[in-house]
Design brief:
2 helices
Length: 85
């Protein structure tokens, strides 16, 4: 590959990657939803208590899924390799 082709390929790649981050200025939220942009993180209206409750709910669901996976694995492990019919 010649140097000119490499340079053109490099410029085209850089241009494509630069264009990835460009957002239009007239974006509007879907109908029926609030316009929260731009927003700070964490949301200033959210209380720590609400965050803690949500995290506890998520962790509870994760623990429940892990227990179900372990029970299924244990049931599979205890299943006989053959069966009599």
């Amino acid at each position: 590959m010649t140097t000119t082709r490499k340079a053109i390929l490099c410029i085209m790649t850089a241009t494509a990657l630069t264009a990835c981050g460009v957002k239009p200025g007239n974006v509007k939220p879907p109908s029926g939803s609030e316009d929260l942009y731009p927003a700070t993180y964490p949301h200033p209206g959210a209380s720590q208590n609400a965050y803690d409750l949500e995290m506890a709910r998520i962790q509870g669901k994760r623990a429940e899924a892990e227990r179900a996976a372990k029970a299924a694995e244990e049931a599979d492990r205890n299943k006989p390799d053959w069966s009599v019919r």
